[in-house]
């Protein structure tokens, strides 16, 4: 099997910073914890997929194709008899100890800042079988590529998805072991932070079915369409949200929406200068809008990761 290894380059650019954002994670005191040298790469894929190639319709995700995608199984102590004791969401590995996901995954704990009890979150990485929930009482009994959540951090200590700020950091009890099928995704930096680089582009979304992960392309709404989304298609409690903190993806009527898709990544594959193209985490799946932004049959709302980059870096650790 042909194995691909991507080499990261340090890119220096002089650009004007957006308020509240760091232009490059490497300038932050915790910057060395993210953008691992193999972040966003696909070393277990035999042939590199051209960066201009996107899924046509819904396609199954092959093992190792998106090695940063994880499934979160969150224990629901208040579940009814006969129901699964776990609520499932998706997330993305960004460092050896942290997964980025949606805070609404933890809404079963109430709208206040109530964090899940320790060890109630199971994180499955790598080749994921969605038909079963792995079980481990502590990290010593976890199967390969399965980890336990140590804590959850909501944005500025607000409750889950309060005011639309649908983002959360999950810390693992033990470092995540990186290998070809378990790797972090890159966080945006430098010019990639700016919306003009992505308005109207096609990104790749990873969603869940009953048995496996799936991928589907989607058009990032144009700047004008995103303004319409913000003004007319968001719930009332989100109208005060910064227009730059969320964005929409245009979808088809045939797409099936699963609650377990929440927290899943919207990824952009980009080459930078002479560095081979790699994947960057652009958005976190939040919810499906009740009404679609024309001309799309459906619209999915995502949290814009770059808007929260400084907060992410402030709240991760080794």
Largest sheet: 6 strands, antiparallel, barrel
How many individual helices? 2
Which class of the largest domain in CATH terms? Mainly Beta
Helix/strand-derived category reads mainly beta
How many whole angstroms does the radius of gyration measure? Answer: 18 Å
* Reported CATH architecture of the largest domain: Beta Barrel
Shape: globular
GO biological process, one term: proteolysis
Region (Disordered): 18-37
InterPro entries: CLIP_Serine_Protease, Peptidase_S1_PA, Peptidase_S1_PA_chymotrypsin, Trypsin_dom
Biased composition (Polar residues): 18-32
Keywords:
318 residues, mainly beta, Thrombin, subunit H, 6-stranded antiparallel barrel, 6-stranded antiparallel β-barrel, 2 helices, 5% helix
Task: Describe this protein's structure.
The protein has 318 residues and is mostly beta strands. It has 2 domains: 55-64 and 185-306, Thrombin, subunit H (Beta Barrel), CATH 2.40.10; 69-172, Beta Barrel (Thrombin, subunit H). The chain contains 2 helices and 14 strands, in the order E-E-E-E-E-E-E-E-E-E-H-E-E-E-E-H. The chain has helices spanning 223-232, 309-314; strands spanning 59-60, 69-75, 86-93, 98-101, 121-124, 146-154, 168-172, 186-187, 202-208, 213-220, 246-251, 265-272, 275-288, 298-304. A 6-stranded antiparallel barrel has the order 9-10-11-14-13-12. Strand 3 (86-93) and strand 4 form a beta hairpin. Mean pLDDT is 78; it is low at 1-22. This is Seminal fluid protein. It comes from Nilaparvata lugens. Residues 18-32 have a biased composition (Polar residues). GO terms for molecular function: serine-type endopeptidase activity. InterPro entries: CLIP_Serine_Protease (IPR051333), Peptidase_S1_PA (IPR009003), Peptidase_S1_PA_chymotrypsin (IPR043504), Trypsin_dom (IPR001254).
């Amino acid at each position: 099997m042909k194995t691909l290894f991507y080499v990261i380059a340090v890119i220096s650019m002089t650009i004007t910073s957006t308020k509240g954002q760091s232009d490059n994670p490497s300038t932050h005191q915790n910057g060395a914890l993210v953008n691992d040298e193999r972040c966003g790469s696909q070393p277990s894929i035999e042939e590199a997929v051209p960066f201009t190639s996107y899924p046509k319709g819904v396609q199954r995700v092959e093992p190792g194709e998106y090695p940063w995608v994880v499934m979160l199984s969150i224990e629901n102590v208040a579940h009814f008899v006969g129901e699964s004791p776990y609520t499932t969401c998706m997330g993305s590995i960004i460092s050896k100890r942290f997964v980025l996901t949606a805070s609404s995954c933890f809404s079963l704990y109430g709208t206040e800042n109530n964090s899940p009890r320790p060890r109630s979150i199971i994180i499955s990485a790598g080749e994921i079988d969605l038909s079963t929930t792995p079980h481990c009482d502590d990290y010593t009994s976890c199967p390969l590529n399965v980890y336990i959540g140590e804590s959850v951090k909501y944005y500025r200590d607000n409750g889950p998805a309060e005011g639309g700020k649908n983002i959360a950091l999950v810390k693992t009890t033990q470092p995540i072991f990186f290998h070809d099928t378990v790797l972090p995704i890159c966080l945006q930096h430098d010019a990639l932070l700016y919306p003009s680089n992505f308005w109207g582009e096609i990104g790749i979304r990873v969603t869940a079915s009953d048995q496996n992960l799936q991928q589907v392309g989607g058009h990032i709404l144009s700047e004008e369409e995103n303004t319409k989304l913000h003004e007319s298609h968001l719930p009332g409690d989100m109208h005060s949200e910064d227009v730059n903190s969320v964005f929409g993806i245009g979808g088809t009527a045939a797409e099936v929406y699963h609650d377990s898709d929440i927290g899943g990544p919207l990824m952009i594959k980009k080459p930078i200068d002479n560095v081979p193209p790699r994947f960057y985490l652009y958005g976190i799946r939040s919810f499906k809008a009740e009404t679609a932004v024309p001309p799309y049959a459906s619209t999915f709302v995502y949290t814009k990761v770059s808007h929260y980059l400084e907060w992410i870096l402030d709240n991760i650790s080794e």
